[in-house]
Amino acid sequence: MFSKPTSASPLIPTSAMFSQAPSAPKKPFVAYAAGGAAAAGGIELYSAKYYAYCGIGGILSCGLTHLAMTPLDLVKCNAQVNPQAFKGVFQGFKAIYSGQVADLGFGSGITGLLKGWGPTLVGYSVQGLGKFGFYELFKHEFSELVGEENAVKYKDLVYMSASASAEVIADVGLCPFEAVKVRVQTNPSFARGIFDGIPKIISQEGFANLYSGLSPLWARQVPYTVIKFVAFERIAEYIYSILPKPKSEMNKTEQMGVIFAAGYLAGILCGAVSHPADTMVSKINKLKMDGSIGQKIKVIYGDIGFAGLWAGFLPRVVMIGTLTGLQWFIYGAFKAQVGLPTPGGAPAPKK
Questions:
Q1: Are 289 and 299 in contact (CB under 8 A)?
Q2: Axis crossing angle, helix 293-308 with helix 214-242, rounded to the nearest 10
Q3: Sign (positive/negative) of CA torsion 66, 69, 70, 74?
Q4: What gap in Å lies between CA 166 and CA 104, rounded to an integer?
Q5: What does the alpha-carbon distance between residue 304 and residue 311 come to, in Å, rounded to a whole number?
Q6: What is the CA angle 82-87-91, rounded to 5?
Q7: Which of 67, 130, 249, 323 has the greatest number of CB atoms lying within 10 Å of its CB?
Q8: DSSP β-bridge partners for residue 43
Q9: 3-state helix, strand and coil shares in percent for the chain, rounded to the nearest 5
Q10: Are 123 and 73 in contact (CB under 8 A)?
Q11: Cα–Cα separations (whole angstroms), residue 140 to 111, 146, 161, 193, 291
Q12: Rounded CA separation 111/96 (Å)
């Protein structure tokens, strides 16, 4: 009644049905921010060497800029935790430089204004390594994960996820140095810097206290970094879209101008959003009491109130705006120097 299927019948599976024709190597891609996927400057994009160079760029970007901002950061931290002695930016600079606050343990002159430079340089170099290196890694990997079409369509989510993930890792490296920095800047007699500050905190308060400010640090840095990267990418994209020629036709000097402008504007947004958490980090790292992070925050907030969270706002916004603009500029200049595409995405091509 039924005819016997022949060997050519589609009802009988054959090895040919499961074999696949050789496919071309998968072309790496990322949302438009990457600016290309071919090898550049002898460095294959999205290779281990590429991410290592991005990390080195991050070290230079964050370490050098935070070091340069040490005097302003010193005044900002003391405006937050010593408001009686530091009532404003210019008054704070004058008080330290002239030796008016020597009775509180502060030095004078240029050396007085550079208090805390050691943990600042080391801590933010470590953070820059993780921030930029892992951002580039996660941005590419998340784009590959969701597929090229979705990576372009939902690129803001890619930027947000990559930057937040990178910052969580970077802050684990930063936290101990931030604890020492804030302590020596707001209580100068506590220690000279890293080499005596870290052992002193461990011996007096335990190793865990080096990380007592990690949660507030995440609360400050993760929103800051998400805005720093997403706003930068989008602002740079917008600037490129209104210029008379596309990014691909611009020389490196022209691209660096776009990078600094986009970075500075993104930095102003970062400083405003993350300021209350920054105040909490400074307060917690100075506070000497037992208890959980939540208990410490409750005590501090009860003491300073909502208005106190915004102490030192102006110097920090100026500092973060300048800092972020310079960070992107240095990072872009380093990538250009080693032959890699500069950061900041050109707008998607019009269909």
A1: yes
A2: 50
A3: negative
A4: 38
A5: 9
A6: 115
A7: 323
A8: 40
A9: 70, 0, 30
A10: no
A11: 43, 10, 11, 38, 41
A12: 10
Tokens coding 336: 């250009």
- Running DSSP on this structure, what letter comes out for residue 345? P
pTM: predicted TM-score of the whole model, two decimal places: 0.78
**DSSP string covering 163-200, please?**
HHHHHHHHHHHHHHHHHHHHHHHHSTTS-SSHHHHHHH
Radius of gyration of the chain (CA): 25
Which H or E run contains 67?
helix 48-68
Q: How many residues does this entry show for the chain?
A: 351
12-53 confidence digits (pLDDT tens): 444 443 344 444 444 444 444 344 445 556 889 999 999 999
pLDDT digits (tens, 9 = 90+) for 100-123: 999 989 999 999 999 999 999 999
AA identity, residue 307: A
Cα 262 to Cα 80: distance, rounded to the nearest angstrom: 29
Q: Give Cα separations from 238 to 204, 209, 243, 293, 326 (angstroms).
A: 52, 44, 9, 41, 20
Q: Which residues contact 125 (CB under 8 A, 6 or more apart)?
A: 59, 62, 63
| Cβ neighbours of residue 64 closer than 8 Å, sequence gap 6 or more | 330
Place of tokens 């990576």: 151
Q: Which range, 1-10, 80-89, 196-205, is most confident?
A: 196-205
